[in-house]
Amino acid sequence: MKKSRIQIITVLILLLITGCVKNKEEKDSVDVVNKSKTTIAEELKLPAKYKELLTAEMMKIQSAMQTLLPLLTAGNSDAADLSMQIHNSFILKQSLTKEELKELISLLPKDFVKLDRTFHADAKALADAVNQSDFNTAGRIYGKMISGCINCHSRYASKKFSGLTNSEIKD
């Protein structure tokens, strides 16, 4: 019973991930109909240095999230360390001074900051669940993190992720 539950969760998460990852060439082929439906999408407008760091951070998070899935479904405790790396940020906190971090936060929409803080708090909760060998809870938290990715991308990166237009997931 427990094994089949994990398998079902794994399949659902894989489907979510597959839906999130878009082919880079497709980003320019924005569907005009979807574009006209956009009601809450707002592209982030940041200075180049922050945009580059944020992009690099997102790439690290994407890689970590893809690595986490097989670790979680195997009950591997290495998932806790990786989750903590997500929680602590890979690049932004290490690359920016306190003043720059404060400036970046002031440039970002409040809801983006809220989504980001929730995502990183969820990464900490995921690490805690793994450390307690509670992989059922860990799977739910991982799914919540994926939902956070979808919500953020549909709101703030709709040009890059045009397939997510109006794809907000309610908690």
Amount of helix: 55-70%
Mean pLDDT: 80
Distance between the termini: 26 Å
What structural class do you assign from the helix and strand content?
mainly alpha
Kindly report the CATH topology: Four Helix Bundle (Hemerythrin (Met), subunit A)
User: Could you state the oligomeric state of the chains shown?
Assistant: single chain
Q: Write the CATH homologous superfamily.
A: Cytochrome c/b562
- From the alpha carbons, calculate the radius of gyration and give it in angstroms: 17 Å
What does the main sheet amount to? Answer: none
DSSP E strands, number: 0
Describe it.
The protein has a single domain, classed as Cytochrome c/b562 (Four Helix Bundle (Hemerythrin (Met), subunit A), Up-down Bundle). The two termini are 26 Å apart. The radius of gyration is 17 Å and the shape is globular. The chain has 8 helices and no strands. 70% of the residues lie in helices and 0% in strands. It is mostly helical and 171 residues long.
